[in-house]
Every structure is written in structure tokens, then in C-alpha cells.
Design brief:
Elements (H helix, E strand, L loop, with lengths): L1 H5 L6 H5 L5 H6 L13 H10 L8 E3 L13 E7 L2 E6 H4 L7 H13 L28 E4 L2 E4 L5 E2 L1 E5 L46 H14 L3 E3 L10 H9 L3 E5 L31 H12 L5 E8 L12 H17 L9 E6 L6 H10 L11 E6 L21 H8 L6 E6 L21 H5 L7 E6 L12 E2 L11 E2 L1 H12 L20 H4 L14 H10 L15 H6 L15
Helix pairs in contact: 7-8
The structure holds 2-acetamido-2-deoxy-beta-D-glucopyranose (2 copies).
Length: 595
């Protein structure tokens, strides 16, 4: 179903111009669509869409003074009532009346781009303090999951991942896209440069040994920012990553390693084990022996002490509502990966597997999906060992109330606490750092985000159930989330440039630390099986959830309007069973081309 990858990205117009065989190329290369509405690379548009909050059904989505979201939630369309008020209405009802405001904007944008471009020069960027010589570590101990916390397996100290997402694409700023162009009266003062190393794109393996000259200074600056964890996105299992892992370890940095490639961590709504072994052209070939792909990465990265977690899948339902029918595939995939770890237990460290969900906000889906992926359906092996949420709801606002300037009770994280405070496995924000709201980036990006939420992660409000948070993201590109400008991003800027965004996060990461109340006492440290009840003055009450009832998983899939409701209680055969019974050919092609 090629359509799946394309719909919602370029609204179908790619389909008109591309044959099925071209689609993986379209996604990998920075291709442009033929139609005007779709001049963005599909991945860029996805990235934009996924970061933007949406207005609720029948909520306001536009109007002269409106500063909130202008896109509607799934199934809704923004309908203009008058110049002052537009509201979200169900798509079917909205189909006929009321012109959307888009055509006018498109024309305006077009007029602007047709004006002759004035020659611009750029003022030099403000000077930065010299980076100190980084602190280095001789050894770094593996981190283990116990109950719903992470611990240093040697010292027994509780571990909190102060993280940053690392996916530099070398995508230079070219004024065609980004938040700054949407700010009335904003005069852009930037001149794009030529990124060092050229354009890499979303799916590049940015940490392979051959890219050492690019990632070395990034790693050192991350360490100095106070980060102890990096989240990665796309790796090529045919490449070596030994140099990167060693350098990261020497700086005290752990790494969250993706086991899926090419896409965002997607798995199709298709029975296991074919959903992660078979070459499914209709799914953009994402499933081409994904199990072999993942095992190869597991084998390499399990040997490094500083591999923190393996991401088994990510944001299944972000690109496609039918992701809600594909969670059984995640469970089966996780089970087969756990079986592989068990088979290799003598020579392979059991690194915890995490699933990273898109934050769907209120409603039942967030909790039902989390319970499903952490429950034991057939056995513990089909449950993930840790859980992540990619959260973009605290947009640099403060939430005043009850005489406090920044009151957690009024913040969007309060609901998340409700859903996850009694969670059975370590819970992290696998991405955070909304850049909408009061703050908008304006190239060359003065001020930046202030990260007021960090103190809550580590403090009383969330410190009892969170084990990490990954700031999105290290490098600037068209999405404008960057903490830094990669060398050559702007004209005349040849070195890595640290933005105010970076220094603001540094302040937060260095100021707050994980509460030592739950560190393991010395006597417990050598035990292989300690649980929080042994090590901390807190009651161990975080039991594995029961798997959601049929009523609940039907409700979620119906609400999300999946094309075909899938049975979440079915047990699917493992890869090995399928091979033994001759349903599958064991030697799937590998290695294979990945973009
Ligand atoms: C890896 O961790 C073990 C403890 O489990 C430690 O003895 C060893 O020195 C560490 N290795 C490195 C390279 O840090
Ligand atoms: C650590 O947590 C305990 C229990 O919630 C609390 O009493 C204590 O004040 C916390 N300490 C710090 C430094 O936040």
C-alpha cells in the first residue's frame, strides 16, 4: 500500500506523478512533487505535521487574532465562519461550504517569492564562550531496568536520561519553510550556507565511523550541555559504529538505538511474522526482513556498555491511522527480539526494548496502547521493557495558577502523570520540546526555548515515575527545532554554532538532578534481581497491567477509523515457528539496500 506512505504527506499528488517502484526513492531523495501544494519532501512535511498541535473538533482553528493551531484533529476540517472565527468541523460536513483560507495564503506566498531576491549580507553571529575541555570517563557501566526505574548496574544509583535527539540532516535553511516565515512582519536576516559534508537527508546513518569528523565536536558539546543520553533514528547495520560508541562512552553518554530503519519506526497492520520479515512493496518495503536488520544491530550494539535502550518501533499511528491496527505486529516483533536475546544470553547483554508512541493527548488510546504493549499476552516476552512518549504539548508557556507562576497542575503534563504514574516499566519522554506557543524561532534564532518543564521531570511532580527525557533536537533544519547550527548551515558560519536554545537547556540539565531517594543501598547492589521495593523506601505497586479488553481495543480502532479492525488478542506465530512449519523461507535477502 504505497498510498499509506504518501497520503497525508503530499495529499495524494505524489501518487499522480510517481509509480510504485519510485516511492522509496522519493522518500529518500529530496524529491519535489509536481504540484504546487506539494513542493516539500514528504519527510519534511511529515516532520512538520507531526510537531504541530491540532485543534479539537468544533474548536477554534483560525481567525484574525487566533494564535492557536490551525490544523484540525483527524477527520476534521477548518471551516471559516468569518474573518474572526474559523472552527473545526467533521470533514464530511465541511466538504461543501466555506472556502478555506489557504488559497489566499498560497497566492501571497507566491507573490512574495516572485519578487526579485535582494542581495543580503549577514551580520556576524554573537560570539560564544570557548568550549571547555570535556570531562572524560574511563568506564561506563551498563544501565538496567528494575521495576519502573533505570539503575546503574554497578553503583546501584538511579539513572535519569537527560537526552538530546540526534539526527542531523544537514538540511540548510532556505527560506522556503519553517515557522519564521509565518510570523507577520518578521524580516529574515539569514543567508543560507553550504553544509559541511553535503545534504544527508532523514534516513542517513549519521554516526557511522566514516563520519567521525562530523560527530566528534557534536558529542563533546552535548556532554558539556549536561546530556548523558542521545537518541538516534536511522542506522545502517552494514556499517560500523564502534568509534562513535567509544567516543560517546568516554564522555559519559548513553545511546538509544533504533532497530527499525528507513521509516520512522513503522510496522504494517499485517499478520506476524510477515509484517517484519516480508518484502512488502505496498508498505514502501519497510518490512524487508526487518527482523534480520534488527538482530544485526542488536548484535553490534549489545556489546557496548553505553547502549541504553533499543527502540523496537516508533509512532506507529503518526503517518497512518491504520497504525492502530498494527500494534499486534509490534508485540510479535518484540517477542521475537526477546527470544533472540534469550538464545544469545551467554554472549549478549539484555538491553531493554522500548516502544515510542506519538502523544495522542487526551482520550483512551494513549493508555490503552501503553497497557497493551506492556502487558503479557502470551508471556512476558511480548511486552516491551520500557515505554516512551514523544510529547509536544508544553510549548514554552508557563502555567500560572493558585498563586504559583508555573503550576504543574495547570500544565498539559498533568494528564500524562495520571496515565503513567503507576506504570510498570521505566517511562521516558522519548522526545520533548515543543517550539510553538509563545516562542517562535527566528533565524538566526535569538533567545530560544527556555525548557521550563525540565524541573518537573526531575522534581516532585514527575520524578517518581519518569526515567528520562530527550530534547528534540540537536541540529537546526527546516523544522527549526535545533539547539545548534551545523557547520555551514548559514553563510560564513563554518564551525558548529551553539544557539541560545542550547545554553538554556544546559542551564536546566545542570541545575536539576535525579532524586537519590531511590538509589540502591550498597548491600543490594550485587544482587541480580533487585527491585525498587528492595532498594527504596517506597511501596512496590507498579504491577504489569492486564491486557486491554476486546471492548477497549475495538473502541480505539473504531475511534481512529482504521480500515480493518485487527484482533489485539490473537497470538501470532514466531519467526522460528513459521520457518519450522515451512511457512517462510528462512534465508531472506540480507544485506539489502537501504536508502
Ligand atoms: C562495562 O561494564 C562493566 C561492568 O558491568 C565494567 O566492568 C567494564 O569495565 C565496562 N567496560 C567499559 C569499556 O566501560
Ligand atoms: C526526594 O524525594 C523525596 C520523596 O518524594 C522527597 O521527600 C525529597 O524532598 C526529595 N528530595 C529532593 C532533593 O528533591
Amino acid at each position: 500500500m504505497v498510498r499509506r506512505l504518501i497520503q497525508g504527506l503530499c495529499f495524494g499528488s505524489l501518487l499522480a506523478t510517481a509509480g510504485a517502484d519510485q516511492v522509496p526513492d522519493l522518500l529518500a531523495a529530496d524529491s519535489e512533487c509536481a504540484s504546487e501544494e506539494c513542493t516539500l519532501n514528504a519527510l519534511q512535511r511529515h516532520a512538520l505535521l507531526k510537531k504541530e498541535p491540532v485543534a479539537k473538533m468544533y474548536g477554534q482553528c483560525g481567525g484574525a487574532k487566533w494564535k492557536g493551531p490551525t490544523n484540525c484533529e483527524d477527520g476534521g476540517k477548518c471551516v471559516k465562519n468569518n474573518d474572526w472565527y474559523s472552527q473545526c468541523e467533521p470533514e464530511a460536513a465541511a466538504a461543501a461550504p466555506a472556502p478555506s483560507p489557504e488559497p489566499a495564503e498560497t497566492n501571497k506566498a507566491k507573490e512574495e517569492t516572485e519578487e526579485p531576491a535582494p542581495t543580503k549580507t549577514m551580520a556576524p553571529l554573537p560570539a560564544r564562550p570557548k568550549q571547555p575541555v570535556p570531562k572524560t570517563y574511563e568506564t561506563l557501566n551498563p544501565i538496567i531496568a528494575r521495576g519502573n526505574f533505570l539503575y546503574d548496574s554497578v553503583t546501584g544509583k538511579r539513572f535519569f536520561a537527560k537526552g538530546v535527539a540526534y539526527n542531523p540532516r544537514n538540511e540548510k535553511y532556505d527560506h522556503s519553510f519553517g515557522n519564521s516565515v509565518q510570523i507577520a512582519g518578521w524580516v529574515d536576516k539569514c543567508v543560507p550556507g553550504t553544509p559541511k559534508g553535503g545534504y544527508w537527508g532523514y534516513t542517513a546513518d549519521v554516526i557511522e565511523d566514516d563520519k567521525e569528523e562530523f560527530w566528534t565536536e557534536d558529542l563533546e558539546a552535548m556532554a558539556d550541555m549536561g546530556a548523558n543520553t542521545i537518541r538516534l533514528y536511522n542506522l545502517d547495520p552494514r556499517k560500523s559504529h564502534a568509534k562513535f560508541m567509544k567516543k560517546a562512552a568516554s564522555l559519559g553518554i548513553y545511546v538509544i538505538v533504533p532497530l527499525t530503519g528507513k521509516d520512522y519506526g513503522f510496522l504494517p497492520a499485517f499478520p506476524a511474522p510477515e509484517c517484519y520479515t516480508k518484502d512488502l512493496e505496498d508498505y514502501g518495503n519497510v518490512g524487508v526482513n526487518l527482523l534480520g536488520f534488527a538482530k544485526t544491530l542488536m548484535k553490534e550494539f549489545s556489546q557496548y556498555n553505553n547502549t541504553l535502550l533499543f527502540t523496537a518501533a516508533n509512532e506507529l499511528a503518526q503517518l497512518d491511522k491504520n497504525g492502530y491496527a498494527a500494534f499486534p505486529c509490534v508485540k510479535a516483533f518484540v517477542r521475537d527480539l526477546h527470544n533472540y536475546q534469550a538464545d544469545c544470553a551467554e554472549s549478549m547483554r539484555k538491553v531493554p526494548l522500548i516502544y515510542s508512541d506519538v502523544d495522542t493527548g487526551g482520550g483512551i488510546a494513549r493508555k490503552v496502547v501503553a497497557d497493551y504493549l506492556t502487558c503479557a499476552l502470551d508471556s512476558d516476552a511480548d511486552a516491551v521493557d520500557a515505554y516512551g512518549l514523544n510529547v509536544y504539548s508544553w510549548c514554552d508557556e508557563t502555567y500560572p495558577g493558585d498563586g504559583k507562576a508555573d503550576n504543574f497542575q495547570y500544565s498539559p503534563y498533568k494528564d500524562i502523570k495520571q496515565d503513567f504514574e503507576d506504570f510498570s516499566v521505566p517511562f521516558i519522554f522519548s522526545e520533548f520540546g515543543c517550539n510553538l506557543g509563545k516562542f517562535k524561532t527566528k533565524c538566526p534564532y535569538p533567545d530560544g526555548r527556555t525548557w521550563p518543564d525540565v524541573k518537573h521531570f526531575l522534581g516532585e511532580d514527575m520524578g517518581q515515575f519518569m526515567s528520562g527525557a530527550i530534547a528534540f533536537q540537536w541540529s537546526m533544519d527546516k523544522e527549526e527545532y535545533g539547539l545548534t547550527l551545523s557547520p555551514g548551515f548559514l553563510a560564513g558560519q563554518d564551525k558548529l554554532y551553539l544557539l541560545d536554545n542550547y545554553f538554556n537547556l544546559q542551564k536546566q540539565y545542570k541545575k536539576y538532578d535525579v532524586n537519590s531517594t531511590w538509589d540502591a543501598p550498597a548491600g543490594e547492589v550485587d544482587k541480580c534481581s533487585f527491585v525498587p521495593s528492595d532498594v527504596a523506601p517506597m511501596e512496590y505497586k507498579h504491577k504489569r497491567p492486564a491486557c486491554p479488553s476486546k471492548e477497549l481495543w475495538m473502541k480505539v480502532q473504531h475511534e481512529k477509523r482504521v480500515d480493518k479492525v485487527v484482533d489485539w488478542s490473537a497470538s501470532w506465530p514466531s519467526w522460528r515457528t513459521a520457518v519450522n512449519f515451512g511457512w517462510l523461507v528462512p534465508n531472506m535477502p540480507f544485506p539489502f539496500a537501504i536508502a
